[in-house]
Amino acid sequence: MLGMKPFARSSCLLLPMALAVAVVTATIAGCFSDSRRDDSTIRITGSDTMVNLAQAWAEAYHEAHPDISSPVRGGGSGVGIAALINGKVDVATASRAMKDKEIALARQNTGKEPKQFIVGRDALAIYVHKDNPLDEITIDALAEIYGEDGTITTWPQLGVDNADCAGGEIIRISRQNNSGTYAYFREIVLGEKREYKQGATAQSGSSELVTLISRTPCAIGYSGMGYYRPGEVKMLRVSRKKGEPAIEPTLETALDNTYPISRPLYIYTLGEPTGAVQEFVEWILGPEGQKIVADVGYVPNPKATETPSAGGDSGDNRSADKGPVAAGADPAANDASPRAAGQP
User: I need a labelling partner for 60 at 20 to 30 A (CA). Which of 3, 26, 91, 96 fits?
Assistant: First the structure.
């Protein structure tokens, strides 16, 4: 017995009953060792808004740390959060905050509390075709275009003659309902009690949405400002109400919250990150990772900080220690102490 060679890790064959218990135990341990997570791989899944950013992070980090690989997948914030809830990823990217019920499910499934980090900010731009004569729009008008029972269906109702659009019909382009962008647009523009109007053309990714608008003179849509393509599409200035100044989506207006549709960008881990994941998160929040945030077209954090806010169904407007935060304000600015998502 003592002279037997150990079985290869990939061999999970049934052992003859005559083998000693010690050898059986060692072999079973070898069979299951392939399922352990390799610390040299950091799995990242989630927001399509952030997929280019996450890929840029992964590539730059691999150059500096060749022993670490970070495969990136999109699919939407909901997809990344679901994977985190089930313990299938190390980092979930999200353009919305986790909901209370998602935090509870993660805790139930994994025994760990999701940790939330704000990694930058984004302005959700309103896109039209480059030849569309419209230059600005109000939140109220957007609600009437996209909202259930909305009354705005043609470009002349917005005061413009879109000559390239037969009949003047507005073609609504939207995101799929598992997208954080979809959820955030509904929250800010439609309100939580109003549903989307049926009949919009849904796109699975931000890039696909902007591409479709660039080819469709009658179209309007919404996506992160990081996907702007000069000469192909136009970003509209946006005002909260008619008569108020319309604000252009820029790095500056997203950061100071004068642009009315700006939002934090998040990453989540299960519990306090450790090992390679901890080092990766610290790098993202540090100068190198934040420079990439700016290079990709988003707004870097004024300083590297973790949000103290709970998850919540509305996401961004509560601070655990400081009480309610004004709508549109950055909860991370109130408290830099580390805290689990959903912790009171």
Answer: 96
